[in-house]
Amino acid sequence: MARRRKPDPTGSPAAQPAPATYAPVLNAGIQATTARVQEMHNAISGKTFDALLMLPGLSVPTRLVQGAHDAITTGVYAAVRHGANALLALAGDAERLLVDPTRELEGRELAFRSALNAAAGDALAQAGSPLAVQMGLHADGKTVALTRDALAGLRERVCVFVHGLACDEQSWWLFPDAWRGSAWQDTGSSYGVLLAAELGVSSLYLRYNTGLAIEDNARQLGEHLAQLTALAPQVREIVLVGHSMGGLIARRACERPAEADAAWRQRVHTVICLGSPHQGAPLEKLGHFVASALSLSNVTQPLGTIANARSQGIKDLRHGLRGKKRRPEGLALRLVAGSLADEADAMMGPMVGSVLGDGLVTTTSASDASLAGDVQRVELAGLGHMALLNHPRVYALIREWLGASPL
Question: Which residues contact 70 (CB under 8 A, 6 or more apart)?
Answer without folding.
Answer: 42
